[in-house]
């Protein structure tokens, strides 16, 4: 018989909880991959900004689980003017919504998937490349 969860005292994972899970996923990524990321910043927010959603043509903030913001390495030049650091955003509420609907993946697996996918955009990788990297991180 399965034990019952005391839902009365349960709480959704916080932004800080997500940061811990994302940091653990980051550490599982191959060191040579992390080194090339350089000063990439990983941020956890509840939702994407309205301006970002509008720019991407996304109506519901629950439809955006992550975002890479910056210039991918395949498009950078040594002649580029210094700018803000490249960032990966993980959107807590959208990820939690997906997690509760999917029921098949752990929260850590979903956060890892979104993180690897968005970092892949930093490198200009294809979806197939990102799947290969993710399979090495999760196994």
UniProtKB/TrEMBL annotation:
SUPFAM superfamilies hit by this protein: Metalloproteases ('zincins'), catalytic domain (SSF55486)
Gene3D superfamilies referenced in this protein's UniProt entry, alphabetically: 3.30.2010.20
Protein name: Neutral zinc metallopeptidase
Transmembrane segments: none
UniProt cross-references to InterPro entries, sorted A to Z: Zincin_1, Zincin_1_sf
UniProt xrefs under Pfam families: Zincin_1
Species name: Hyphomicrobium nitrativorans NL23
């Amino acid at each position: 018989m399965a034990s019952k969860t005391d839902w009365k005292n349960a709480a959704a994972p916080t932004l800080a909880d997500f940061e811990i899970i994302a940091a653990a996923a980051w550490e599982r990524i191959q060191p040579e991959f992390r080194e090339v990321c350089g000063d990439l910043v990983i941020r956890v927010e509840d939702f994407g900004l309205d301006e970002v959603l509008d720019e991407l043509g996304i109506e519901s903030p629950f439809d955006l689980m992550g975002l890479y913001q910056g210039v991918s390495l395949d498009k950078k030049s040594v002649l580029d003017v210094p700018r803000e650091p490249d960032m990966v955003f993980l959107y807590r509420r959208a990820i939690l919504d997906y997690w509760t609907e999917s029921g098949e993946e752990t929260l850590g697996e979903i956060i890892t998937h979104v993180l690897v996918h968005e970092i892949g955009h930093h490198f200009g990788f294809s979806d197939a490349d990102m799947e290969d990297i993710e399979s090495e991180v999760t196994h």
